[in-house]
């Protein structure tokens, strides 16, 4: 069946999923299984599937029954007759599929089936869950499909996850008919089936429907070349209760029997379990060498010929496995690979029989398998087999030697690895186990436990190889960063960076998260120490290193830290750009809120504050605070307090502003660098000045000595406010020259604007209006590239008097809100007004069309009360009392 692609007119970018080379199971799990050679057509069931999937009201088709009931064969048979209404995606689920891995497979399946998804859908970045935005974008894309997409989830019962079920329900209900879901399951799915039944949106095929009738059982035996009496068929059908797999198993065994009729009677009366049958009639029917191969292969979920050779000591497992698969000995070859998989029921019986027939052999076999998987680059399988064997030293040592320690923090197999190592004995000594325990505890935010295990690892670190020492420094860097100690994080990151050339490049290529997270950590440490130029260089390199798929988490962190560097340097345009890229990367990779540092939103709050868009600043600061987590970085804590204090001051809340600054100073005091402490002092001084307390402003600044230009400017500002303009001018005269290089790359250009305004204020007060105008003009020129508006709003009433005498200054700088127009002969517009938010601008544009409040609400999908609230805010910002005045003033100000 030809599956036409689903197009997306708004975004032609396509999803790029994981490479099939990453997992030999990928192609098999997304492939429609092959039909058995002997197939019994069941037209009534096929017609029910067709009717359900062709009905536009039917969203869900459930095929439910016990193992071996023929669920998968039925749906596969239906698909083979090209009855699907649109593109088909098949996914075979497996035990342990976490929500993130599940949705990664679904999205990859859509891509392989020709379904084009917009880039905003993204893909999961972690195994344990997905962000709701991914599901929203996926449902939106499916709703836009010109024809419904059929998603078949085979063995849904293998994934008993409430989160996965809720996500499926959400996407199915919001895809607007663009998704038809077919489920095969042994158990009741965790979906609200009663709601689907009530709305007639479900087709159900249950175990009673799947049971073979007497006629079908007879046809099955006949297709196997067996002649059995009607009584014998009746006995088999009654004993198996129409169980399809049981009938097929019996038919295969009867082919080997000299008297099929007698076998049918004996099976019906003497055999108590299918396990007896499988052992006696299937396993024992194989030559002893093949019996041994099957028994030993049962320890692995999948088997490769080379692994089978290792487990058995033979050298012809390739031929032997192919022969067993060809003989239908309940072993199947996975499509497109050299791997095989035992029938699950047969594997379970074999595994139990291995323990009974060869007691004590299983741990040895698992240890062999662990080493083979390790050499084959199958990390997760190697660790799981070593853990089952009780060989924890090998499991931990391999994770460290392979430089895979970062997989405990990020990746689709993170949940499985954490679950495996959670069973490692607490008293297991040695540097690798201690280091793995430390990483696990760090992932759970147990900083004290992590520190204790790191000390244990350090006791044996001296003779260790570079891989272990690199992993030790890597975990130490993450722990120091989480604890808010940039200096220690920098030392650990530097040590790790020094060790990188000593480990095989192949390992680094296999685990790009290590160098990417190290560079991000180094950059964050430089940022925390206030070395902004070094931080920028490190973080730019980190962003470049995060270009590969799967590195969205460190990419988000690197972009957020880079944006913070640029905010502190006063480069607002670049800061805003990188902050938005950081948030976009987090959204596309569906990072959960607890994994986001909040730096992106914090930087946007800082940019909005400098642009004098205080409403946006407050909204972004709220988002940043919510995402900061339990252990905010000192830089984030300080900048959050500084921005919050400026916003509180603008609202007249002096006590609230000072409380924010005091809390940040006390919380981060242990590891607060000098520059950050100075930022808090400068912000505190500004709070006091806004309330006319110049003495308190100077006292705050005098508590800490600093040679930063920002500190000098803040002190001069307090002196001017305290009536000492001459002292202020003397201090400002000692600032670096106008060449930015002379101030050093660590300083923000914003201080130059403030310094010019202070000089203008000082000379204006001494009776030199011409010099004041010249300095104001210089400040406006400096502020224009980054549109630094707030600094003018905070400058005080003297500025309005200067502009009153020189109105052309404001007219020449229309980027300032409220700049330079008159509404009448005697009415002077304010030089600056608070910027309207995007939503307020929309409301004002609607109001300009003479629409009523209710009409505006309907057009913008808002409530009438919300529209009224926005109008009140507009009136306040524009200093008007009526709607018509607001429209006229906004036009005069160039805001419409």
UniProtKB/TrEMBL annotation:
PROSITE patterns xref list: HTH_LUXR_2
SMART domains documented for this protein: HTH_LUXR
Sorted UniProt keywords: DNA-binding, Transcription, Transcription regulation
Alphabetized GO MF terms: DNA binding
Segments of this protein annotated with the region Disordered: 1-22
Pfam families documented for this protein: GerE, TPR_MalT, WHD_MalT
Biased composition (Polar residues): 1-16
Keyword presence, Zinc-finger: no
SUPFAM superfamilies assigned: C-terminal effector domain of the bipartite response regulators (SSF46894), P-loop containing nucleoside triphosphate hydrolases (SSF52540), TPR-like (SSF48452)
Matches recorded under InterPro entries: P-loop_NTPase, Sig_transdc_resp-reg_C-effctor, TPR-like_helical_dom_sf, TPR_MalT, Tscrpt_reg_LuxR_C, WH-like_DNA-bd_sf, WHD_MalT
Name of the featured protein: LuxR family maltose regulon positive regulatory protein
Organism the protein comes from: Kitasatospora atroaurantiaca
Organism taxonomic ancestry: Bacteria, Bacillati, Actinomycetota, Actinomycetes, Kitasatosporales
């Amino acid at each position: 069946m030809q599956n036409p692609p689903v197009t997306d007119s708004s975004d032609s970018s396509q999803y790029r999923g994981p490479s099939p080379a990453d997992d030999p199971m990928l192609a098999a799990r997304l492939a429609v299984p092959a039909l058995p050679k002997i197939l019994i057509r069941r037209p009534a069931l096929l017609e029910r599937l067709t009717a359900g999937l062709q009905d536009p009201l039917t969203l869900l088709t459930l095929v439910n029954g016990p193992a071996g009931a023929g669920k998968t064969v039925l749906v596969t048979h239906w698909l083979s007759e090209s009855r699907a209404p649109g593109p088909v995606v098949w996914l075979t689920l497996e035990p342990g599929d976490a929500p993130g891995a599940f949705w990664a497979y679904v999205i990859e399946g859509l891509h392989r089936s020709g379904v084009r998804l917009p880039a905003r859908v993204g893909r999961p970045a972690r195994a344990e869950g997905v962000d709701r935005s991914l599901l929203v974008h996926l449902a939106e894309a499916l709703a836009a499909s010109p024809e419904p997409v059929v998603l078949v989830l085979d063995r849904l019962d293998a994934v008993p996850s409430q989160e996965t079920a809720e996500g499926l329900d959400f996407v199915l209900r919001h895809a607007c008919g663009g998704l038809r879901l077919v489920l095969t399951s042994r158990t009741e799915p965790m979906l609200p089936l009663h709601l689907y039944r009530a709305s007639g949106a479900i087709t159900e095929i249950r175990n009673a429907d799947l049971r073979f009738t007497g006629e079908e059982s007879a046809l099955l035996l006949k297709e196997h070349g067996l002649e059995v009496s009607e009584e014998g068929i009746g006995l088999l059908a009654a004993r198996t209760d129409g169980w399809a797999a049981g009938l097929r198993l019996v038919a295969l065994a009867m082919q080997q029997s000299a008297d099929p009729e007698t076998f049918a009677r004996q099976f019906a009366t003497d055999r108590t379990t299918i396990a007896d049958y499988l052992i006696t009639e299937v396993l024992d029917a194989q030559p002893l060498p093949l019996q041994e191969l099957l028994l030993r292969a049962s320890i692995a979920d999948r088997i490769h010929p080379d692994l089978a050779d290792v487990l058995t000591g033979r050298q012809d497992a390739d031929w032997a496995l192919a022969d067993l698969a060809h003989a239908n000995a309940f072993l199947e070859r996975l499509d497109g690979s050299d791997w095989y998989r035992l029938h699950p029921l047969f594997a379970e019986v074999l595994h139990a029989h291995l323990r009974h027939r060869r007691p004590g052999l299983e741990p040895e076999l698992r240890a062999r398998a662990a080493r083979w998987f390790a050499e084959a680059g199958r990390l997760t399988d190697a660790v799981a087999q070593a853990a089952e064997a009780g060989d924890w030293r090998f499991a931990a040592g391999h994770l460290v030697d392979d430089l895979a320690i970062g997989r405990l923090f990020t990746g689709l197999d993170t949940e499985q690895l954490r679950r495996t190592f959670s069973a490692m004995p607490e008293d297991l000594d040695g540097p690798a186990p201690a280091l793995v325990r430390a990483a696990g505890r760090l992932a759970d935010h147990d900083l004290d436990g992590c520190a204790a295990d790191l000390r244990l690892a350090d006791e044996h670190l001296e003779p260790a190889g570079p891989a272990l020492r690199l992993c030790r420094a890597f975990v130490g860097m993450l722990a120091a960063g989480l604890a808010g100690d940039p200096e220690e994080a920098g030392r650990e990151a530097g040590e790790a960076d020094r060790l990188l050339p000593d480990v095989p490049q192949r390992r680094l290529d296999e685990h790009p998260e290590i160098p990417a997270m190290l560079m991000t950590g180094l950059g964050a440490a430089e940022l925390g120490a206030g070395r902004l130029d070094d931080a920028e260089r490190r973080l730019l390199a980190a962003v470049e290193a995060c270009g590969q798929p799967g590195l969205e988490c460190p990419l988000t962190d690197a972009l957020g830290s880079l944006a913070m560097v640029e905010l502190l340097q006063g480069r607002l345009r670049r800061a805003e750009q990188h902050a938005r890229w950081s948030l976009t990367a987090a959204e596309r990779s569906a990072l959960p809120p607890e994994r986001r540092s909040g730096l992106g939103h914090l930087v946007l709050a800082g940019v909005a504050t400098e642009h004098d868009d205080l409403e946006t600043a407050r909204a972004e600061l709220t988002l940043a605070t919510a995402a900061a987590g339990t252990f905010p970085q000192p830089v984030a804590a300080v900048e959050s307090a500084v921005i919050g204090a400026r916003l509180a001051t603008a609202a007249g809340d002096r006590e609230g502003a000072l409380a924010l600054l005091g809390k940040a100073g006390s919380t981060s005091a242990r590891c607060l660098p000098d520059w950050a402490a100075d930022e808090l002092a400068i912000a505190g001084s500004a709070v006091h000045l806004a309330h006319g307390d110049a003495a308190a402003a100077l006292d705050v600044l005098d508590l800490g000595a600093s040679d930063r230009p920002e500190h000098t400017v803040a002190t001069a500002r307090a002196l001017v406010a305290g009536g000492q303009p001459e002292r202020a001018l003397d201090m400002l005269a000692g600032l670096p020259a106008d060449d930015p290089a002379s101030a050093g790359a660590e300083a923000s250009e914003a201080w130059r604007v403030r310094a010019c305004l202070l000089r203008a204020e000082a000379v204006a007060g001494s009776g030199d209006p011409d010099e004041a105008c010249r300095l104001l003009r210089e400040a406006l020129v400096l502020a224009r590239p980054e549109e630094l508006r707030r600094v003018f709003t905070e400058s005080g009433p003297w500025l309005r008097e200067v502009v009153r005498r020189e109105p052309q200054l404001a007219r020449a700088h229309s980027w300032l809100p409220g700049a330079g127009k008159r509404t009448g002969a005697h009415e002077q517009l304010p030089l600056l007004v608070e910027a309207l938010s995007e939503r307020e601008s929309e409301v004002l544009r609607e109001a300009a069309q003479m629409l009523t409040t209710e009409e505006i609400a309907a057009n913008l999908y808002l409530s009438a009360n919300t529209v009224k609230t926005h109008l009140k805010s507009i009136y306040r910002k524009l200093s008007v009392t009526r709607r018509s005045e607001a429209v006229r003033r906004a036009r005069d100000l160039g805001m419409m």
